[in-house]
């Protein structure tokens, strides 16, 4: 009889890709995906702890399965991910949700198959495996990919930076880079299998190779090697740290065949005092010099950033500095977040937390400014014919994106298939380009 699984994923692209690996394990055991809670024989919650709200949401979701499991006694429920890597949380889940069968952390997620089989074969009724960081790289598990035209590829795990607002280094451990040959061979296979977009993933891709298990190659060399692969595809990468993005990497991008001219460079704020409090290890001046260097080598670069609004002690003047930075850089996209307390981080213990209503006002002002900048920047595409990757068809509309990640709605498509097409841009609506295939 066909068995089914359901994976509920919270958080970032790292987690989305981790879930693809869990799905890979389940598919190899003959399970098929379902969206129907009651139909699932295995349910996995892959959690996030970057914001406390995400943790509460995950706990609420897990709780909803108590009555379902009462009806379907042999359903197996597993909880994993960053939230579980915090030992107190893991213990809380294990104690308060006795219907959860498997609890495992981020460092041993590649052992999911072993834990599942142990419960399936009734060797253990429940599994609790939250381990301290292992100095070795995790074993790679075959993924069952779910992100359409795009394929995620981990190039490194963990982070050494300890930004004061961030929990990631505590739950993902120190940086570990995968060997370059292994990454290049995974990318080659993906291109052979028809993937049109490959996104190299790491918390700080620019420090690729700095840490043990590799040490021989840096990020520029890795990009060069991946760029040598033959085929019709685009390479992207996430995420860059402004203190580590080198001119060498930017030159490789500028001279490449396949690497997208989109660079996501999270600045977080435009004020030096706050950057120091955040432990970001760069100044506004350094950041702006890096932006100038990028624009010199890649004049058509598409820049995006993350901004945290309302970090503890942020004054109106400090916030104005961030708005001024936006005006100077002229980003294509800005992801603005309200600072939210995250216990276990140094920022949580700081004085001077900003009231929520002020943070909301500031983030709205920031996003309104960015919308104006974005609209202005998009005008240059009007009447142009550009290369677009068709990615989805939903409710009769076809969606795509440019090599630089700009969203496009494509009209009058006769035959939809995930592929590159040339699109003439006729209109701009909100921050989307609208055009037709030529
Ligand atoms: S660079 Fe900073 S924000 Fe990014 S994962 Fe590392 S500690 Fe967190």
Give a short overview.
The chain has 438 residues and is of the alpha/beta class.
Mean pLDDT over the full residue set: 93
According to CATH, the homologous superfamily of the largest domain is: tm_1862 like domain
What is the number of strand segments?
19
The CATH topology of the largest domain: pyruvate-formate lyase- activating enzyme
Radius of gyration: 23 Å
Amount of helix: 25-40%
For the record, what CATH class of the largest domain applies?
Alpha Beta
Whole-number tally of structural domains = 3
Uncertain regions: pLDDT < 50 for 5+ in a row? Answer: none
Q: Widest sheet: strand order?
A: 2-1-3-4-5-6
Instruction: Report the β-strand fraction as a percent range.
Output: 15-25%
Alpha-beta classification: alpha/beta
* Tally of contiguous helical segments: 14
CATH-defined architecture of the largest domain? Alpha-Beta Horseshoe
Report the major sheet. Answer: 6 strands, parallel
Ions, cofactors and other ligands present here are:
iron/sulfur cluster
End-to-end Cα distance, whole Å, is: 49 Å
Keyword list:
438 residues; alpha/beta; Rossmann fold; pyruvate-formate lyase- activating enzyme; OB fold (Dihydrolipoamide Acetyltransferase, E2P); six-stranded parallel beta sheet; five-stranded mixed barrel; globular; binds iron/sulfur cluster
What does this entry look like structurally?
The protein has 438 residues and is of the alpha/beta class. The protein has 3 domains: 4-129, Methylthiotransferase, N-terminal domain (Rossmann fold), CATH 3.40.50.12160; 150-379, pyruvate-formate lyase- activating enzyme, CATH 3.80.30; 382-437, Beta Barrel (OB fold (Dihydrolipoamide Acetyltransferase, E2P)). Helix content is 34%, strand content 23%. It is built from 14 helices and 19 strands. The protein has helices at 13-28, 52-63, 65-71, 82-85, 87-96, 112-120, 168-172, 180-192, 219-227, 247-254, 272-277, 284-297, 316-329, 356-378, and strands at 4-9, 32-33, 42-47, 76-81, 102-104, 127-129, 150-154, 156-157, 176-177, 197-201, 234-238, 262-264, 302-309, 333-338, 385-394, 397-402, 407-411, 419-429, 432-437. The strands form 5 sheets. The chain has a 6-stranded parallel β-sheet with strand order 2-1-3-4-5-6, sandwiched between helices. Strand 13, helix 13 and strand 14 (333-338) form a beta-alpha-beta unit. Helix 9 (219-227) packs parallel to helix 10 (247-254), helix 10 packs parallel to helix 12 and helix 13 (316-329) runs parallel beside helix 14. The protein is globular, with a radius of gyration of 23 Å. The model has no long low-confidence stretch (mean pLDDT 93). The site of iron/sulfur cluster (SF4) has 10 residues, from helix 7. Residues 159, 161-163, 166, 168-169, 203-204, 241 line the site of iron/sulfur cluster (SF4).
């Amino acid at each position: 009889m066909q068995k089914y699984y359901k994976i509920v994923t919270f958080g970032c692209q790292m987690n989305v890709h981790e879930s693809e690996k869990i799905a890979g394990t389940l598919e190899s055991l003959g399970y098929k995906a379902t969206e129907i809670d009651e139909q699932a024989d295995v349910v996995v919650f892959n959690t996030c702890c970057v914001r406390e709200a995400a943790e509460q949401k995950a706990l609420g979701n897990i709780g909803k399965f108590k009555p379902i499991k009462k009806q379907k006694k042999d359903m197996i429920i597993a909880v994993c991910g960053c939230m579980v890597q915090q030992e107190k949380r893991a213990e809380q889940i294990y104690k308060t949700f006795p219907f959860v069968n498997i609890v495992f952390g981020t460092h041993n997620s590649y052992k999911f198959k072993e834990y599942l089989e142990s419960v399936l074969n009734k060797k253990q009724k429940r599994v609790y495996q939250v381990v301290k960081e292992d100095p070795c790289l995790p074993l790679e598990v075959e993924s069952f990919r779910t992100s359409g035209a795009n394929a995620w590829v981990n190039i490194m795990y963990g982070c050494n930076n300890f930004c004061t607002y961030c929990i990631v280094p505590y739950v993902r451990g120190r940086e570990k880079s995968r060997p370059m040959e292994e990454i290049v061979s995974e990318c080659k296979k993906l291109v052979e299998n028809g993937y049109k977009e490959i996104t190299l993933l790491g918390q700080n891709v620019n420090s690729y190779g700095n840490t043990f298990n590799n040490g021989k190659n840096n990020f520029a060399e890795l990009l060069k090697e991946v760029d040598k692969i033959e085929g019709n595809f685009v390479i992207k990468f996430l995420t860059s740290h402004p203190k580590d993005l080198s001119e060498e990497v930017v030159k490789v991008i500028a001279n490449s065949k396949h690497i997208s001219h989109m660079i996501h460079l999270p600045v977080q704020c435009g004020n030096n005092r706050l950057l120091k409090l955040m432990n970001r290890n760069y100044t506004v001046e350094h950041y702006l010099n890096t932006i100038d260097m990028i624009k010199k080598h890649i004049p058509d670069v598409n820049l995006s950033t993350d901004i945290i609004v309302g970090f503890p002690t942020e004054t109106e003047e400090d916030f104005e500095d961030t708005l001024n930075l936006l005006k100077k850089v002229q980003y294509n996209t800005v992801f603005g977040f309200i600072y939210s307390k995250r216990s276990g981080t140094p920022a949580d213990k700081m004085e001077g937390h900003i009231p929520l209503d002020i943070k909301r006002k500031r983030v709205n002002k920031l996003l309104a400014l960015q919308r104006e900048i974005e609209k202005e920047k998009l005008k240059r595409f009007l009447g142009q014919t550009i290369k677009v990757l068709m990615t989805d068809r939903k409710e009769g509309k076809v969606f795509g994106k440019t090599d630089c990640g700009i969203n496009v709605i494509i009209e009058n498509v006769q035959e939809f298939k995930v592929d590159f097409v040339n699109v003439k841009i006729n209109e701009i609506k909100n921050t989307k380009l609208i055009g037709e295939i030529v």
